[in-house]
Write a structure and sequence with these properties.
mainly alpha, three-stranded antiparallel β-sheet, 9 helices, 3 strands
């Protein structure tokens, strides 16, 4: 998911990514072809590197057990944080996926979600990639000028706060939705 994000959003080739992410030749290509994957303890490190490369805040990576969704309707249940101690042997690999803490949407989730109200979710969240701000491809209201910043203001100055605020708002919305669903079921 992270190599796909770096290639699509950043426009980098596999060879460029190998250099920019400090990998051996062809590593990113093998990651994208599912021929190789980073060790569990290195997944967060890869997230941090890709986030820095694309100038977006890094998110806390979690392993989600979507196999539980079929059993009880639970979605995106966090199984644990990728590290050496996480034992995934008892869970079928097709039930596992990487996600972000607090259910922040991953690039892959945004890319493959069906459009809503004529908008792709990817376009709705495009503002989170600072590299897009720097390349000038974002339009109003996602411009420095529209937000009251000088055109030369580095995205690192304001983007982390924007993402933090969006996460807080998204979390509050999800909690409200859960509360409403619970209250609706009880009545």
């Amino acid at each position: 998911m992270l190599i796909e994000e770096a290639r699509d959003v950043g426009g980098f080739t596999f060879a460029e990514l190998d250099v920019l992410l400090d990998f051996e030749d062809s590593t990113t290509s093998r990651y994208s072809e599912w021929k190789r994957a980073p060790n569990a303890e290195n997944i967060q490190n890869l997230e941090n590197k890709v986030a820095r490369l694309l100038k977006r805040p890094a998110h806390l990576v979690v392993v989600e057990n979507n196999g539980l969704a079929a059993e009880g309707g639970i979605t995106n249940l966090e199984f644990g944080f990728p590290n050496k101690a996480l034992n995934l042997r008892d869970v079928p690999t097709n039930s596992l996926q990487l996600g972000y803490d607090a259910d922040w949407p991953t690039y892959r989730r945004l890319k493959y979600s069906p459009p809503r109200s004529g908008l792709s979710l990817l376009s709705v969240y495009a503002w989170q990639w600072g590299i897009l701000w720097d390349r000038g491809v974002l339009e109003h209201p996602w411009t420095r000028d529209a937000l009251g910043f000088h055109p030369d203001t580095p995205v690192e100055v304001f983007l982390p706060k924007m993402v933090e605020d969006a996460k807080a708002g998204r979390t509050a919305y999800m909690r409200m939705r859960q509360a409403l669903n619970c209250d609706f079921i009880k009545s």
